[in-house]
Design a protein that fits this description.
By secondary structure, the chain is α+β, with helices and mostly antiparallel strands.
């Protein structure tokens, strides 16, 4: 998470990562229709402000991109056996994925 703190898209997010809570939502096959796969991290400041931070990788250019999204695309949640892919609460995320796919 230190890497994300150093590459946060806004200073407010950087500060929130120090004082607030961080939840890894896990891996997603794409973040928006047609986008690259990536991970989403939810950051909540101690004041209650929240951001959904996306991290995607461009494998051709070997670059990481970090930005925020308003909605979580649960239908694209991948999960997996590894914590980085499953996220902090995989059972909850699987239910959210199933609910969005209905």
């Amino acid at each position: 998470m230190e890497w994300l703190e150093n590459n946060a898209p806004r200073k407010a997010i950087e500060y929130a990562m120090v004082d607030g809570t961080i939840e890894l939502l896990g891996a997603f096959s794409c973040i928006a229709d047609g986008s690259n796969p990536g991970w989403i991290v939810k950051v909540i400041s101690k004041r209650g402000l929240s951001w959904n931070i996306v991290i995607t990788v461009n494998t051709f250019r070997h670059k990481y991109f970090v930005y925020t999204v308003k909605k979580i695309p649960w239908k694209y949640y991948m999960g997996g056996n590894r914590p980085l892919y499953a996220g902090d609460k995989p059972e909850v995320y699987k239910e959210l994925k199933n609910a969005q796919n209905k």
